[in-house]
Amino acid sequence: SQQARIDVISGVFGRPPRDLQFPKNSAGKQKVISEIFGSNVFGIKEMGERLPKPVFKTFCSQLKGGQTLDKITADAIAHAAKVWALDHNATHFTHWFQPQNDTTAEKHDSFLSLKTSSVGGLREVHALETFSGSELLQSEPDASSFPSGGMRTTFEARGYTVWDTKSPMFLQEGPHGTMILYIPSVFISYNGEALDEKSVLLRSSSVISKVALEILHMIEPADGEDHGLTFCLDVPRTKEIFTTLGTEQEYFLIDRGLYALRPDLKTCGRTLIGGLPARHQQLEDHYFGKIPTRVLAAMSEVELELAKLGVPIKTRHNEVAPCQFEAAPIFEEAMLAVDHNLLTMDIMHRVAHKYKLKCLFHEKPFKGVNGSGKHCNWSISTDLGDNLLSPSASPETNYRFLIFLVAVLKGVLDHGDLLRAGVASASNDHRLGAQEAPPGIISVFLGSELNEVLNAIEEGRPVNKTLAGTETTHMRIEGTTLDLKIATLPKLNRDMTDRNRTSPFAFTGNKFEFRAVGSKQSPSFPVTILNSAVASALLEIKEDLYKQMGSKTVATDEDMLTVIRKYISLTKNVRFEGDNYSEEWVQEAAKRGLPNIVKSPDAFKRILSPHNSEMLTRLGVFTQTELESRYHILAEKYTKEIIIEAQTLWGLLIQHVLPAAFSYRRELSESATNLKQLSLNAVPEVKWLEQLAPIATAIQESAKKLDTLLAEQQPIQEAEVAAEHACSKIAPAIEEARNLTDQLERIVADKYWPLPKYHEMFSTL
Ligand code: ADP
Ligand code: MG
């Protein structure tokens, strides 16, 4: 009721702030973050200090060779990890894994074991802490309760979690000042099929690393090899390549008390009803605004907790919508960055509690204001720290940059629909295609400067300095005629890329930013797809370059330029520099043959399209069975989420909204009757009743419609048909009921309105 809302809001302002002391060093001075960073991680350094030297050496070489650990090494690591964990008050350990449900999973086991010995001929049982190599390496959760898309039937529900040795173990807070040892793991079936998000990411990472390295070795001379570029002689050769990822995480925070009064937020993560208040984001005063004190305190505690886990949060700020914020880390190797994003969401969620806040990761918690995304900044890096998508390196390496650039273009052109599938969900549908977020057409934005360089290469003409922005920057263009003999391309300036906020996939200086990713989802699947699509393009490019090179061991500039030019022409259609929200683009994209996939059920199907499934299985990232399973999991999750929303909304309408309308109506009609008895002619209450009645009736009907549609949905077994029905029938009915309810909210007296309103949730931080 209204009273509950008032109580929460007045409670907030009388509450003392949470007091948090930053850790202090031995001198009593507050520690700086770098001193705290990674203190709860059993990383390489910690292992090196605690493990016997030969064991540590074996571990490192097994890690590099991608081999599994032998028993002796595993036992020794487990022992060292146990001693370290017990030093930090740990009581339990858990394999920590990533099932396909956007969250992480864990099952705690204590270090406790019992040993029997004989004392004076009598058996004595005593307790001690143990942790064996096999407990470290593997665990066997009951896999039947996790989504598997029908890959395993319940009677053979065995699944295994296996320590991903590339990810270090870490400690998280347990109850009463104790700690829990986390072992990052993959989750696979008895037959080795991926049941999780992580296995496929690992596979895609090794595929792209391998082909990228092969290309690099084709275009860069080996140590000591004379390529006429004497300065190359002392440069050590790249031995390893990996993709890098920085996830900008957007989220909403609202007061927990108000949240508790909203069954829709609690059950579905978004408000199913609620009208926009007069003031929301139209003054454009929230983005980068002053961070509310309670929120800032919570953010700072989140950063502290994440620092202990070695998660490098760099940026925090207000986002566009009221109550919306963002956190961004320093980028890391993609595999680790995904783990760290999941930890970030987990810690945000938990710390928010301590501040009586609720953190909302849903892509569209509030209708009418901006939704949340998770921009995935992605690039490819060498072990020498060279960013392969950085154009700002010396001009001599621009060819290398251009080769990797066109590979990304080719990957996105060939598998844009798959990338779209990678970000599809019931919740992200509310955001994609709306006028605030990248639409369902995947295109690439390069910026006018780079665009001009590619056009010039394609057309074999000089780079237009004005278009390429060279007049305003300090770029050197030494050779402006791009004939095949000229080795120098313009030196591109990283800071010159424009900011086209409407593009789903934008080049931002020295990385690509995949902006269509949803705030709630794990970045793992989209990055897996991106890695795979680009790897596939690199394989094609490698073949072409190989042919071009003939008998040479290292490609010449001419070889590279020929191949680059070919791929620039091939991928022209995927480049778009204009406004991605415009109607013209929808038409233009259709002409270019780029798919526009508006709804998730259509996107999911693309996972099984021959051109996509062929690529993913050829590269060994997925098996056909795994792909089919994933399709089913995604489609079923989509359907279930919409059913849950419809059921929740039905409850709201029948149990909260309509009763409010009826109470108000009773008051109005009683008052109207009284006034009529006074023989007053003009009774405004009557007019109001007349306005109320049709809306209430329509709401009643829409509740009934939801009921009918849910009954129709129930017997549909086939995942594709079910998702289609949920999408085309139930989702619009939810929207329809909502619109009516929002009209009602405007005309019902506030004291009868059962749920916290948008303006209350927006203004109570
Ligand atoms: P922008 O303002 O263009 O979004 P920022 O420098 O603020 O760029 O970076 C946004 C995110 O991109 C950060 O998380 C950052 O760490 C990440 N990022 C920067 N460079 C790379 C890279 N080479 N690979 C992956 N992510 C990167
Ligand atoms: Mg950005």
Question: Which descriptors apply to this entry?
Answer:
nine-stranded mixed sheet; Four Helix Bundle (Hemerythrin (Met), subunit A); binds magnesium ion; binds adenosine-5'-diphosphate; globular; 22 helices; 765 residues; alpha+beta; 19 strands
Bound molecules: adenosine-5'-diphosphate, magnesium ion
Main sheet overview? 9 strands, mixed
Strand content of the residues, in percent? Answer: 5-15%
Report the span from N to C terminus: 21 Å
> Helix fraction?
40-55%
Poorly predicted ranges: 224-233, 470-488
Secondary-structure-derived class = alpha+beta
The general outline is: globular
Task: Kindly state the number of beta strands.
Answer: 19
Mean pLDDT score: 89
Work out the radius of gyration. Answer: 29 Å
Domain GS beta-grasp: 91-192
Domain GS catalytic: 225-657
GO molecular function: glutamine synthetase activity
InterPro entries: Gln-synt_C, Gln_synt_N, Gln_synth/guanido_kin_cat_dom, Gln_synth_cat_dom, Gln_synth_gly_rich_site, GS_Type-3, GSIII_N
Descriptive overview:
The strands form three sheets. Strands 11, 12, 13, 14, 15, 16, 17, 18 and 19 form a nine-stranded mixed beta sheet that branches. Helix 14 (524-549) packs across helix 15, helix 19 (624-677) runs parallel beside helix 21 (719-747) and helix 20 runs antiparallel to helix 21 (719-747). Among the domains are: 32-141 and 159-186, no CATH class; 635-762, Four Helix Bundle (Hemerythrin (Met), subunit A) (Up-down Bundle), CATH 1.20.120. It has 765 residues and is an alpha+beta fold. Strand 18 and strand 19 (512-514) form a beta hairpin. The model is unreliable at 224-233 and 470-488 (pLDDT under 50). Helix content is 45%, strand content 13%. The two termini are 21 Å apart. The protein is globular. The structure holds adenosine-5'-diphosphate and magnesium ion. Magnesium ion is lined by residues 248, 375, 513.
